[in-house]
């Protein structure tokens, strides 16, 4: 397949030709580096430098395994799965604590808007202390719930993609998201943040 302009090609088309022409893989890296770095930072407590090292390993593993790319998956799901696995592996090697993951104000607002009830908390979200309390609630969640919320609302992945990334059934993903909502509400109540639920 002849690819003249990589910008006009899908991820899957680029992945299929990247072994023959490394320029196409470089283009894929450019498409994904910011998103994957953000994802790695969200699900870990790594420093920027450590997260960049993990990202480099993700790209190395992705390139080495391009021939094994499962074409029934979206390329984005496949590379996120590699990023997930590599982050978890590095986390275990470092025995790091996930309780200090970093969500910025924008991320906090996205999650809150997605989880909130019919109550309009837009003005509350602009208050720094509310945002900080929201982060505390998110950090208090078990890792499995925190991660599905990040994938669903920060990374904007649908249930099928989350299923592919985490290698869990769609039913399990749906259950995890539902339970994450319940845990979020429970933690918010503990902190007397009823305006968030």
Structural commentary:
By secondary structure, the chain is mainly α. The protein has 2 domains: 7-98, Orthogonal Bundle (Rna Polymerase Sigma Factor, Chain: A); 103-196, Winged helix-like DNA-binding domain superfamily/Winged helix DNA-binding domain (Arc Repressor Mutant, subunit A, Orthogonal Bundle). 68% of the residues lie in helices and 0% in strands. The chain is built from 10 helices and no strands. The longest helix is centred in the first third of the chain and has 21 residues, at 22-42. It is elongated and about 60 Å long. The termini are far apart. The model is unreliable at 96-100 (pLDDT under 50).
Question: How would you describe this structure in keywords?
Answer:
single chain; 197 residues; mainly alpha; Rna Polymerase Sigma Factor, Chain: A; Arc Repressor Mutant, subunit A; 2 domains; elongated
